[in-house]
Amino acid sequence: MAKVGSATQERIDLLLAQALGAYEELPAVVREIHGWSDAERMSYVYDWFLLEQRVQELERSSAKMNPKQRRRLEDLRDTVKSHRDEAELVKSLAA
Amino acid sequence: MVTDEIIIELHANPDREASEAEIRAIRKRLTGVGFLEETRIPPSSRGLSASGHTLGERESSLVHHLVRRIVLDEQWTDGTTPEQYLADLRAAVEDSSARFGVGKPPGNGAPLVYVFADNHVPQRRRGRCAEPSMFVLYGVADGVIITGHMVSGTDAVRKADDFRWLR
């Protein structure tokens, strides 16, 4: 599990940016992922589980975020919510 | 290739336990393969940089995974080379604690081998978020390691619905 309990502000910025980017590109991934090789598809899926762990840890780190980071976390929450179905589809590929 | 056929056969016969010789063959197979030579890098991961590698549009899957494990997951330390990372995964497969399972998600052309082992990565290469166990996933369809990272335990990894331990 990714632990950002003692993460630096710089690391929080990195994880917020990477997670937001990953969710925003998710619809495009879902459109094409069935055409990928098994190895590329499963690699993406298992990286997605790690991403979700990092998002959970970001939530746990919210108290130490500055105002700008909190706004980005709000953006991330909205993005997670709006792409929930695509994320569930990706995770189902491992089952 | 013969070992991949054994894996397929074991997956197709869920009541059959793998023999010690078959587990040895699987270990040998998994320690002899690498990652995909080239893979697409998601836009959100491009530009991530560690151990002298910066991710572009396409990279070797080994480098892709190493950079993610260092930068995003903080499981390995910056400076770990691709060769050292791969050696750490292979050491896990060879470790006496390694447990092997098999399963096939429906969309896959062939089974996956799931390996869990104690984490013996040297302290100097362990990142801030190192975990007690190692996980390596091998795909028969492409004959490559799909991913490898540290985990808290076997329950922390999503497995195929038809997953089973081989021994």
Specify which chain pair forms the largest interface. A-B, 34 and 41 residues
Unreliable segments of 5+ consecutive residues of chain A = 1-5
User: Percent of residues of chain A in beta strands?
Assistant: under 5%
State the assembly state of the protein chains. heterodimer
- Tell me the series of helices and strands of chain B, N- to C-terminal: HHEEEEHHEEEEE
Counting DSSP E segments of at least 2 residues, the number of strands of chain B comes to 9
- Rg of chain A over CA atoms, rounded to whole Å, is 14 Å
Average pLDDT across residues of chain B?
A: 97
Mean pLDDT of chain A: 93
Strand content of chain B: 15-25%
Give the overall form of chain B.
globular
The profile of the biggest β sheet of chain B is: 5 strands, antiparallel
Taking all Cα atoms into account, the compactness measure Rg of chain B is 16 Å
The portion of residues assigned to helices of chain B is: 25-40%
> Major sheet of chain A, described briefly?
none
N→C terminal distance of chain A: 20 Å
Give the CA-CA distance, first to last residue of chain B: 21 Å
- The portion of residues assigned to helices of chain A is over 70%
Give the neighbour order of strands across the main sheet of chain B. Answer: 8-7-6-5-9
Structural class from helices and strands of chain B? alpha+beta
Structure description:
- The complex is a heterodimer of chains A (95) and B (167).
- Chain A has five helices and no strands.
- In chain A, helix 1 crosses helix 3 and helix 1 (9-24) packs parallel to helix 4 (67-82).
- Chain A starts with 8 loop residues before the first helix and ends with a helix.
- The longest helix of chain A has 23 residues, at 38-60.
- Helix content of chain A is 75%, strand content 0%.
- In chain B, strand 7 and strand 8 (144-151) form a beta hairpin.
- In chain B, the strands form three sheets. Chain B has a five-stranded antiparallel β-sheet.
- Chain B has 167 residues and is of the alpha+beta class.
- Chain B has helices at residues 2-12, 20-30, 61-71, 82-94, and strands at 39-40, 49-50, 53-54, 58-59, 99-103, 112-118, 133-139, 144-151, 164-165.
- The interface between A and B is large, with 34 and 41 residues.
